[in-house]
Design goal:
The protein has about 190 residues and is an alpha+beta fold. It contains seven helices and ten strands. The longest helix has 14 residues.
Amino acid sequence: MTRQEIAAIPADRTVTYARIVVDYRAQKDDPNRARITICGNLIDSPGKLTTCTADFTTTKLVWNSVISTEGAKYMTADIKSLYLETLLDWFQYMNPNLNLFPQEFRDKYNLDSIAKGGHVFMEIRKGMYGLPQVGILVNKLLKKRLANQGYYELPHTPGLWKHVSSPIAFTLVVDDFGVKYVGETYAHHLV
């Protein structure tokens, strides 16, 4: 961001800091993981930030239903990058230390020239790990897209979904699905 853009940040917005999270996940193609996350504890976000998702009891009931339903199968699905690709309703701001960036990035994006006090100010427009409002934004987006295809959430069981006419049910936690289906056609329809 330029100095003029930094000066234009709305007064009601908090500028927060970055945190590096390092992990080893053996099941991934690249098991060595490093992520920059935003520290959401400093962010004041207007509106509701939580959403009801499937709990462990609901998930166990779906598993038992698969076992007790003739011809039923179970699969899991995850919408890759939906969390990170969801547009924010309002932008957030972060000022990571310039030293967090490799020199090649600093050179390529001319970061040293726009740094202020050893920090680079960033405007965040899409979901990022650590943002408190992203989960509910993803949930609202999924509900809208699923409803357009005939899926609905059961009114008294948060996170449990069915289709209006197909033998399929699934639990939903943010963008992770646990799906019971009878017939490959219905699984493919959901995917």
